[in-house]
Specification:
Length: 60
């Protein structure tokens, strides 16, 4: 299972193990879902994603 999920519609990355109802991950369209290789927060940030404030401790 992936550790992180990116939402391309708003460029926010979620930490799946820490996700909250506020993340609304189930509302992210399949076409907007992005996984990272390697599956790390650093990789998502290098791909211009910002961390979700609910599950990843970020500002957004
Ligand atoms: Zn989140």
């Amino acid at each position: 299972m992936a550790g992180y999920l990116g939402d391309k519609s708003n460029m926010v990355v979620h930490h799946l193990a820490m996700m909250k109802p506020e993340c609304k991950i189930y509302h992210v369209k399949k076409a907007d879902r992005v996984y990272f290789v390697p599956d790390t927060l650093d990789q998502s940030i290098s791909e211009k994603f910002v961390t979700c404030k609910y599950c990843s401790g970020g500002p957004i």
